[in-house]
Backbone:
């Protein structure tokens, strides 16, 4: 299996621009997670989906962030408009586990976002 | 809100010394996972603990889950340079998932 695939791996953009990060989970996994990692705040769960339905989006910082999962094989995380404080590594992860025991998370290699 | 505190934040050891990182939760967990992230890499799953008082071993790594299912530890015996990285715990309480901030281990030979 190819693992969780994220794109782009690196993105540099200017403040105010729209950023779209993409994720393809492992085939057959029914839960998908978006995390943000910074030195100051560590790994923060932004949102997670189970069977394409958002279960917990309490970690989404504000209205500038939105996430979608239109089907079982694709998800996007969008930031509009982007700000310098959004600079971070964004990880997508998937798991075959259920809501009450997610078990092992399989992480993608991350998308490193820099907002100037 | 629910928190998982992980200590220490950083640890430097000489190769061959032991290392331990601890996670303490403000709430009872249903399970806890441990991950390792190498510099510049992504978190990689190490193990899951589910039962109260559970102890699991993987070669030089020993994982424990407390009796009250509120704390956990990872102990590495005789560290090697390949153990360098950040170790995270990830606790689950209901549908809530909470990562600790990690312990970054450096090892000098």
Residues:
């Amino acid at each position: 299996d190819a693992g969780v695939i994220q794109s782009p791996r690196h993105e540099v953009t200017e403040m105010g621009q729209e950023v779209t990060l993409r994720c393809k989970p492992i085939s057959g996994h029914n839960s998908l997670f978006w995390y943000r990692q910074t030195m100051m705040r560590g790994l923060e769960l932004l949102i997670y989906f189970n069977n394409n339905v958002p279960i917990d989006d309490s970690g989404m910082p504000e209205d500038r962030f939105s996430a979608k999962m239109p089907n079982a094989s694709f998800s996007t995380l969008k930031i509009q408009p982007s700000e310098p404080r959004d600079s971070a590594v964004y990880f997508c992860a998937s798991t075959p586990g259920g809501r009450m025991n997610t078990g092992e998370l399989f992480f993608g290699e991350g998308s490193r976002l820099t907002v100037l | 809100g629910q928190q998982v505190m992980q200590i220490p934040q950083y640890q430097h050891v000489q190769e061959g010394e032991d290392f331990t990182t601890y996670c303490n939760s403000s709430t009872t967990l249903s399970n806890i996972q441990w991950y390792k992230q190498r510099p510049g890499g992504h978190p990689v799953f190490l193990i899951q603990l589910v039962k109260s008082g559970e102890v699991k071993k993987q070669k030089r790594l020993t994982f424990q889950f407390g009796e009250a299912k509120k704390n956990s530890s990872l102990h590495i015996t005789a560290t090697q340079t390949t153990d360098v990285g950040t170790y995270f715990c990830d606790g689950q309480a209901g549908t809530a998932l909470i990562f600790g901030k990690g312990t970054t281990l450096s090892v000098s030979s």
